[in-house]
Amino acid sequence: MVPNMKVLIVFAHPEPRSLNGALRDVAVEALQAQGHDVRVSDLYAQSWKSDVDRADFPSLPGDARLAPAAASKLAFEAGTLTADVKSEIEKLLWADMLILQFPLWWFSMPAILKGWVDRVFAYGFAYGVGEHSEKRWGDRYGEGTLAGKRAMLIVTAGGWQEHYSARGINGPIDDLLFPINHGILYYPGYDVLPPFVVYKSDKLDEAGFEAVAARLRERMSTLATTPPIAYRRQNGGDYLIPDMQLRSGLEDPGVSGFALHVGRSQTRHDEPDTLGSATEASAAVA
């Protein structure tokens, strides 16, 4: 029996009739059919403000210099963050599972979603927490406010899967998504599941979409049981503190770059949840 979960989907696409919109609906329906509680933050529909500026910190004196991190810390501690940010933080605390869904634009997330992270992941909430000493360097990378919760990405990409392979011109998809998976989700404590990636997203026909939808339904049925990416814990002994260098000898021969920060128990995933089609679409865009 799959336990009931509270799932938050943060959705970032400007067109409700897009492929992303259709996949969001598939995910919501599949999750609700399993008895999970689902909330959706549709950033474009909410007209989400993506830029960080003085308006985010109404208690900041008008003549004070804006230092965003310091202002975020003071506003979080004083409870003076803006209402939209407070609402999203409450959703994150409510949810057992966070899904970020977006099209891959210029090798990253859309600006509106990055702005959601910039504003919602406040100092004292998602970062800047815990003891900083010669033994620990804060509660982060496997620890933190959101530890014990799960997260994953649903991503559409226009390019071919081969373009995002180990030797592909666009670079490996694991590397492109590392700053999000490791730097945004794992940093405040989430257990990060392998991403669900759809390639050739602007060339899906109806049959191709149904195949993707079936895979997505299957993936939504295993959120509680899918093993997370085996990122190394910062305070687990693998890193020298405070230098934050991986101890020598822990990596497999020939491993370098981002892959150093994944433990030996798990290699880079082979995209079991990805699918593309070579035929033209008639009803949906990425």
For this entry, give a set of tags.
single chain, 286 residues, alpha/beta, Rossmann fold, 8 strands, disordered C terminus
Mean pLDDT: 91
**What is the rounded Rg?**
20 Å
**Do you know the CATH topology?**
Rossmann fold
* CATH class identity: Alpha Beta
The H-level CATH homologous superfamily, spelled out, is Flavodoxin domain
Number of helices: 6
**Assembly context of the chains:** single chain
List the domain count as a whole number: 1
Helix content: 25-40%
H and E order? EHEHHEHEHEEHEE
The proportion of strand residues reads 5-15%
Mind telling me which CATH architecture this is? 3-Layer(aba) Sandwich
- Uncertain spans: 267-285
Overall 3D geometry?
Answer: globular
Ends apart, CA distance between termini: 34 Å
Number of strands: 8
Q: Give the class from helix and strand content and strand pairing.
A: alpha/beta
Would you mind describing this structure in some detail?
This protein is of the alpha/beta class and 286 residues long. It has one domain: Flavodoxin domain (Rossmann fold), CATH 3.40.50. 27% of the residues lie in helices and 12% in strands. It is built from six helices and eight strands, in the order E-H-E-H-H-E-H-E-H-E-E-H-E-E. Strands 1, 2, 3, 4, 5 and 6 form a six-stranded parallel sheet that branches. Strand 4, helix 5 and strand 5 form a beta-alpha-beta unit. Helix 1 packs parallel to helix 6. The longest helix is centred in the N-terminal third of the chain and has 15 residues. The C terminus is likely disordered. Belongs to the NAD(P)H dehydrogenase (quinone) family. It comes from Bradyrhizobium sacchari. InterPro entries: Flavodoxin_fold, Flavoprotein-like_sf, NAD(P)H_dehydrogenase_qn. This is NAD(P)H dehydrogenase (Quinone). One of its GO terms (molecular function) is NAD(P)H dehydrogenase (quinone) activity.
